[in-house]
Amino acid sequence: MPTLDQTKERVQETVKHTVEQVKDAVPKEIPSAAELKEDVVEGTKKSAESLRAFAAGAVGGVFSVAVGHPFDLVKVRLQTAEKGVYTGAIDVVKKTIAKGGPISLYAGVSAPLTGVTPMFAVNFWGYDVGKQLVRSVSEVKDNQYSVGQITAAGFFSAIPMTFVAAPMERVKVLLQIQGQKDLKPGEKPKYAGQMDVVRQLYKEGGIRSVYRGSAMTLARDGPGSAVYFATYETIKRRLTPKDENGKPGSLSLTAVCAAGGAAGVAMWLPVFPVDTIKSRLQSADGNPTISSVVKGLYSKGGLKAFFPGMGPAMARAVPANAATFLGVELAQQAMTKMFG
């Protein structure tokens, strides 16, 4: 049993230790009014930049759908059709137009129009937030992010985007493949529209059915977005003329379109097989697994089976992504003129 002196000594040590902890927790200097004001201004500026990125991304999404949807429809039908249904991309176009006219190339467009707009908005917002996170943990020289920093921010952008993209693409794929089915006289399509798709999916399997393919969507969009933004920024910088100080000069819309088109191609090349698996997974009946889809594809056509629709996807990538970044940059310019 400790003596009175020992107990007194322990109490003094405890009090001393507690006082030191409190001292460490208290700021050495209380921020001045000017510093607090600067922090508020900086926080407001970051919030405004994120909102602008969100709005600009939405504009870019509309541009992308308007240009790229017919190409996407051809890609999805080639990816999901049984072997022998189509001889190639041109055959898909011919049969689609013969069946429903040119407007049928925009079958299922309502889903991406209402889904891609928020998807791109969230994507570019996520990219802006990703850049802010990168800046908080590393140095950004002359306000120019390095390729590695852009890549990290691009990968991060795919995380929030997946929550929007996965169900939207599930609906889009089901509506697109429904359009290639030959209906008997008097037979009605299974789905009456995108909301009907969501309703039926939820009834069949709950929220998990609506979000089927989310893992593959993230597996596609994580590395895809990393390459996407890194390629765009790198090529845009090289094509944009420098001012007398060696910094990027006035923005060239030609450079934007060229960089956007190249970014689209660079994004699709490494992740196209993942997209094929995702499309099959989201369009299959029952409760397929990723491994069963992979085995089924390989057994039917080997490695080649993972690349159907590659031509239409690459053909779409250039104009659709050029249009995306053109819309984003034009929206950013307009907001800068309006709000400063």
UniProtKB/TrEMBL annotation:
Q: How does it sit in the membrane?
A: Multi-pass membrane protein
Q: Which residue windows are transmembrane per the record? A: 103-127, 147-166
Output the Gene Ontology cellular-component terms.
mitochondrial inner membrane
The answer, when asked if DNA-binding is one of the entry's keywords, is no
Which InterPro entries does the UniProt record give?
MCP, MCP_dom_sf, MCP_transmembrane, Mitochondrial_Carrier
Its family remark reads: Belongs to the mitochondrial carrier (TC 2.A.29) family.
Protein name as catalogued: Mitochondrial carrier
